[in-house]
Amino acid sequence: MTKTNRRAFMGKAFSAVAGVGAIASLYAMKKSWDPLPSVKAAGFTTLDMSEYKGNELVTEKWRGKPVFILKYTPEMMASLNDDQKTRVIQIGSDYFMVTLGLCTHLGCIPGYNPDEKSFLCACHGGTFNVAGEVTKAPPPRDLDIPPFKINGTTLVLGEEGDEYKKLLEDGKTLRV
Hints:
By secondary structure, this protein is an alpha+beta fold. The protein has helices at about 1-35, 35-45, 75-80, 80-85, 160-170, and strands at about 45-50, 55-60, 65-70, 90, 95-100, 110-115, 120, 125-130, 135, 150, 155.
């Protein structure tokens, strides 16, 4: 009788250890399949737009790419024509240019000249105006606008809101 009890105990102990090992293995597999926290965080970037100053270019980072944020002054808004104003993003009572900071020619990062209110890509001499439109070739198209959604005075990069969808429909940007 003692041999049977000992054998039963050993079987139950082995089963318990194997069960715990199986659960631990499944947990480890699930953790390895989940995206890293840095990858999750890179998907969306939330920006408080009330902190930006007029005619001061700020470069933010979204998914490893530079994003240019430029708050327009009233004088800058007055200088834009109706077509250029369709690329302007209104958040509250302020107006912004939000574009990927990559030249559409070869992906260089253009520099901003606040006096001339223009961008110059030093790689091949392409220029963009303050609305992000090409003013001198070789860039084949205007600066791209990343997907965004407006929540009050915050801008969420990475989500497609109604304003972004309208820019896509109007052909003012490409899906990036």
